[in-house]
UniProtKB/TrEMBL annotation:
It comes from Cotesia typhae. The active site is at E247, D379, E488, E520. Involved in glycoprotein quality control targeting of misfolded glycoproteins for degradation. It primarily trims a single alpha-1,2-linked mannose residue from Man(9)GlcNAc(2) to produce Man(8)GlcNAc(2), but at high enzyme concentrations, as found in the ER quality control compartment (ERQC), it further trims the carbohydrates to Man(5-6)GlcNAc(2). The lineage of its organism: Eukaryota, Metazoa, Ecdysozoa, Arthropoda, Hexapoda. The chain crosses the membrane at residues 43-60. It catalyses: N(4)-(alpha-D-Man-(1->2)-alpha-D-Man-(1->2)-alpha-D-Man-(1->3)-[alpha-D-Man-(1->2)-alpha-D-Man-(1->3)-[alpha-D-Man-(1->2)-alpha-D-Man-(1->6)]-alpha-D-Man-(1->6)]-beta-D-Man-(1->4)-beta-D-GlcNAc-(1->4)-beta-D-GlcNAc)-L-asparaginyl-[protein] (N-glucan mannose isomer 9A1,2,3B1,2,3) + 4 H2O = N(4)-(alpha-D-Man-(1->3)-[alpha-D-Man-(1->3)-[alpha-D-Man-(1->6)]-alpha-D-Man-(1->6)]-beta-D-Man-(1->4)-beta-D-GlcNAc-(1->4)-beta-D-GlcNAc)-L-asparaginyl-[protein] (N-glucan mannose isomer 5A1,2) + 4 beta-D-mannose; N(4)-(alpha-D-Man-(1->2)-alpha-D-Man-(1->2)-alpha-D-Man-(1->3)-[alpha-D-Man-(1->3)-[alpha-D-Man-(1->2)-alpha-D-Man-(1->6)]-alpha-D-Man-(1->6)]-beta-D-Man-(1->4)-beta-D-GlcNAc-(1->4)-beta-D-GlcNAc)-L-asparaginyl-[protein] (N-glucan mannose isomer 8A1,2,3B1,3) + 3 H2O = N(4)-(alpha-D-Man-(1->3)-[alpha-D-Man-(1->3)-[alpha-D-Man-(1->6)]-alpha-D-Man-(1->6)]-beta-D-Man-(1->4)-beta-D-GlcNAc-(1->4)-beta-D-GlcNAc)-L-asparaginyl-[protein] (N-glucan mannose isomer 5A1,2) + 3 beta-D-mannose. The keyword Calcium applies. This is Endoplasmic reticulum mannosyl-oligosaccharide 1,2-alpha-mannosidase.
């Protein structure tokens, strides 16, 4: 509740002394006392009695599932709630009618043949729907803590480890990086692989949680088991420490939910629910737009230290996770709080579908004249519009509409070309007059993948054409550097000032020349490969992977570097971000999956940290 809404003094008090509790209890005296009560007191009694009666009936009838209240559930045809849930089982897991029994009892063994319906002519042995080969010790916590999910748990997925040399090379890189972390930074957020130390950000073992599903997919079962044990015994959220709502949502909540869905292990759902509970205070603002920071221990939230505003992309990139938490636990409040933010922002005025990068949590309004960009602080607003629409079975129209508006605004105002080679890039608009700044963050290179995903799901082919051009430009931001690694930010030459053949399309400022092992372009290459089957995208990813090997690998892992412009002076930064494990290496592994079958993009969506969450039918 917002702090300004004080409870007034006009509450109703019941004076216990009105009842003479010492009097002899006979039916006669009870009756006399009853008659002495005022009408008001008697009414209170009736209300209390009625409430107790209703509550008793409610609990006895076993309908503790708040999920039944999900308005959407009622849209599903069916004569009883049980029938509705059964239908949802079918819808979500794709199993046939005769397998309902199995789906309900959680026996996935017989569900294998649903893959026969996957049209792509690819080997099916990569992804089989059955109990995992690796069986983690089943968590014994009381399941009553968590209501029955309104939609069933999606299929547990089995993975068979690397299938070719490139995948093996990626797993080897992961192992190298992971082993360093285990040795020198175990339980801490990040490893500093050169000094053999660690870096603490939130104190949540970020690298472990972010790595769980990657290890599971790569078939690193021993490492996964140890990581699971750490989560079970040591991942605690009652820390008196401010954390960033967005970062913890995409990394920790997303990581836990993804591995819960992939493995079926409820431990991860229990942890996710505890975390979700502790983050809810962030939404207690007058506008419903969350504060950026929340203290998981004291459960209090506030604006960032640097100012009153939250980042637009941050408050709009938590919905996949909070919705999935609701769908997985049967507790609607997580989804309700997060969806309200999207609805609020839907109703704000935008610039041809484009949004400024700051929003005030108290007023709920954008900061006027803040930069417009598809890079830092803007990026995943657009990504999550599309992905939320997909997550909810394409049933929430405004999400698709806002996404389409955002992309057409991008085409209208931000798509620019270099003078020389006509490379397409996404510029930024700054200041009151919205001046075009010919600059693109590496973060923006997520966009081609998202565009391709939209086209696959029925949006205009025009987006795919844009995706291909942007992929080529992002590739150039790598290929033009002598290290074959992209800088954090690239500037583009848009004015053909001279006829000089040596004029460059791109340039990099020395303050922007670092590479943090970021995943966005690899992510896009994966989507492009997945949807086109064009091996060029795999080859580009392989070149970049080798560049990581050549210039970021150190004795105990891989490190961010300060300078991509000089192979002789890369200025290693002694830091490994957890997204290297969660995303960069995972997307490389998926990119080199020749079957394009490991993760079915008609059934899963990746959150902004590379954690796959199931697509629901509604
Ligand atoms: C594959 O993609 C590359 C890069 O966009 C392109 O040059 C090539 O023509 C594509 N190949 C096919 C067969 O479409
Ligand atoms: C990386 O090193 C290998 C082996 O020395 C070399 O063949 C390759 O060209 C290098 N790649 C890059 C991008 O530097």
């Amino acid at each position: 509740m917002h702090s300004s809404s004080n409870i007034g003094p006009d509450y109703i008090s019941l004076n216990i002394n009105d009842f003479d509790i010492n009097s002899r209890i006979t039916s006669k005296s009870l009756w006399r006392q009853w008659n002495q009560l005022s009408r008001f007191q008697r009414n209170i009694f009736y209300i209390l009695f009625g409430t107790v009666l209703i509550l008793t009936f409610y609990f006895l009838s076993g309908s503790t599932n708040s999920n039944i209240d999900y308005e959407k559930l009622n849209l599903v045809k069916g004569t009883s709630n049980a029938a509705k849930l059964e239908e949802l089982v079918l819808v979500d897991t794709g199993v046939h009618a005769e397998q309902v029994g199995n789906a309900e009892t959680g026996d996935h063994d017989d569900n294998v043949d649903h893959l026969d319906h996957v049209e792509k002519e690819k080997a099916v042995d990569a992804q089989v729907i059955e109990e995992p080969e690796f069986q983690p010790e089943i968590n014994q916590l009381d399941d009553d803590q968590i209501g029955e999910p309104p939609q069933p748990k999606p299929n547990v997925v089995k993975f068979s480890g690397p299938q070719n040399d490139r995948q093996k090379a990626v797993v080897k890189a992961f192992k190298h990086s992971w082993d360093g972390y285990v040795k020198y930074a175990w339980g801490h957020d990040n490893i500093k692989p050169i000094s053999r130390g660690y870096h603490e950000w939130f104190g949540l073992g970020l690298t472990i949680v972010d790595s769980l599903d990657t290890m599971y997919m790569m078939g690193l079962n021993e490492d996964f088991t140890k990581a699971r044990a750490w989560v079970s015994e040591n991942l605690k959220f009652d820390l008196n420490r401010d954390v960033n709502l967005f970062e913890v949502t995409i990394r920790v909540l997303g990581g836990l939910l993804a591995i819960y869905h992939l493995s079926g292990d409820k431990l991860f759902l229990h942890k996710a629910t505890d975390l979700g509970d502790r983050m809810m205070p962030a939404f207690s603002t007058s506008s419903g737009v969350p504060y950026s920071d929340v203290n998981l221990g004291t459960k209090s939230a506030h604006s960032p230290k640097w100012g009153p505003d939250s980042s637009t992309s941050e408050v709009t990139s938590i919905q996949l996770e909070f919705r999935d938490l609701s769908r997985s636990t049967g507790q609607p409040r997580f989804e309700a709080a997060a969806a309200k933010v999207s609805e609020h922002i839907h109703n704000l005025e935008k610039y041809d579908g484009l949004v400024p990068i700051f929003i005030n949590a108290n007023t709920g309004l954008f900061r006027k004249h803040a930069t417009i960009t598809l890079g830092a602080r803007g990026d995943s607003y657009y990504e999550y519009l599309l992905k939320q629409w997909l997550q909810t079975g394409k049933t929430i129209d405004y999400l698709k509409e806002d996404y389409l508006l955002g992309i057409s605004g991008t085409q209208k105002h931000l798509c620019k070309r270099t003078a020389k080679n006509k490379y397409l890039f996404i510029a930024e608009l700054v200041g009151v007059s919205k001046d075009m700044k010919p600059k693109m963050d590496h973060l923006t290179c997520y966009l081609p993948g998202t565009l391709a995903l939209g086209t696959h799901h029925g949006l205009t082919e025009e987006h795919m054409a844009l995706a291909k051009e942007l992929t080529a430009t992002c590739y150039q931001t790598y290929a033009t550097q002598p290290t074959f690694l992209a800088p954090e930010i690239t500037y583009f030459n848009v004015q053909g000032l001279n006829e000089d053949d040596n004029q460059l399309d791109m340039y990099v400022k020395s303050t922007d020349a670092h590479n943090l092992l970021r995943p966005e372009f690899i992510e896009s290459l994966y989507y492009m490969w997945y949807f086109t089957g064009n091996k060029t995208y795999q080859d580009w990813g392989w070149q970049i992977f080798q560049a990581f090997e050549n210039f970021t690998k150190v004795e105990n892992g891989y490190t961010s570097i300060g300078n991509v412009r000089n192979p002789q002076n890369t200025r290693p930064r002694d830091m490994t971000e957890s997204f290297w494990y969660a995303e960069t290496l995972k997307y490389l592994y998926l990119l080199f999956d020749d079957t394009r079958q490991l993760i079915d993009l008609d059934r899963w969506i990746f959150n902004s940290e590379g954690h796959p969450l199931p697509i629901y039918e509604i």
